[in-house]
Amino acid sequence: MKDSVRKLEAYQAETPIEAVKDRYHLDHLARLSANESVAGPSPKVKAALRTALEDLDLNYYPDGQATVLRQALADLNQVPADNLVLGVGADELIQLLTRVVLTPGSNMVVPDPTFGEYGIHGDIEQVTTKKVPVNPDNGHIDFKALRDAVDDQTEMVWLANPNNPTGVFEPVAKIQAFLEDLPDDVVLVVDEAYFDFVKDANKTVAPLVARYPNLVVLRTLSKAYGLANVRVGYGIMQDPLYTAMQAVRLPYNLSNLQMAAGTAAVQDQDYLKQVVSDVWTERDKFQNFLTDNQIPFYDSQANFVWLDVGDAPKVGQQLLERGYQIKSSSSPSWVRIALGTPAENAGLQAALKEILGK
Q1: Cα dihedral 86, 90, 93, 95 sign
Q2: Span 84-102, average pLDDT
């Protein structure tokens, strides 16, 4: 066994809702720990799944190229279909990118804090992960420090935009300037899992992929589209990365049901716009609450907020006992809270005021 694998700790997924309710004798649990969509997917998704089930031949493999879903995504993003690699969530694409790009003994560079999956797969591929702290005052990435961390052994740089867990969004112009200064043999991966929630009209670097062969953009249907249980993600990239990724991707990695759900979801943009509008409303209300109560936070452009509560594990446990499950294990003092329904958000805010003595 690889030493790098032997040292890994398994990802700790959320405890099932019913188990938590039983443990704490709760009538309702607001699961606000995994940045899931409380709105759920478009109603057209379930209709598409019912039709797909009726037509499903379980004894035959699905379309290995996900042709219909691939074209729907190409139309949505205005990119060539042969620039898209589809995966079982963006997680599979993170795994495949590290497998394709990283060589043992090299390094990759990430902001800190950021999504932990990047570092996990770096460890598996036996590379060093160099962490560059974000600006402690506002959570923004220090692009100069990030560039300074790149050396002749660097093979990848990861940017989640908006960042997870901070929710902070970096303007496209800043990312492009960083990319211009990056060596051509260093791959920049911009993970746009939460970009749908950004208010800025110019919110994606996807159009830049055609100009930069070392740029990859990742997307997921788990967040704004409400398909976390279905597991569909995709990457936008050009050759030579596209051909290499297609070569290492497992054949038939998406089922007919995943493809049907994904296609129906991305084709219902009216529903997506309503979901995003509702998130904007709740996010503004939540951040106004934090400002009014002098609770430090970073300005979020995602469907969650990152705030300083002093003792994260303690506050996380106290909220859990009151029926609010949040992410409190990423920092000693900061917690990440996904936006729930209006009633859940209001209840959590009241509980937070009580716990923090506001």
Answers
A1: negative
A2: 97
**Listed residue (189, 263, 220, 196) closest to 87, CA to CA:** 220
pTM of the complete model: 0.96
Under 8 Å CB-to-CB from 165, ≥6 apart: which residues? 113, 114, 115, 304, 306, 327, 330, 331, 334, 336
- ∠ CA(204), CA(209), CA(214), 5° rounding? 120
Query: How far is residue 16's CA from residue 18's CA, in Å, rounded to a whole number?
Result: 6
Residue linked to tokens 């109603």: 43
Q: What is the residue extent of each domain of the chain?
A: 3-41+270-356, 57-267
What pLDDT is attached to residue 245? 97
Q: What is the length of the chain? A: 358
Among the four given CATH numbers 3.40.50.11010, 3.30.1330.60, 3.90.1150.10, 2.40.40.20, the one describing domain 3-41+270-356: 3.90.1150.10
Q: Give CA–CA dist 192/17, Å, rounded.
A: 28
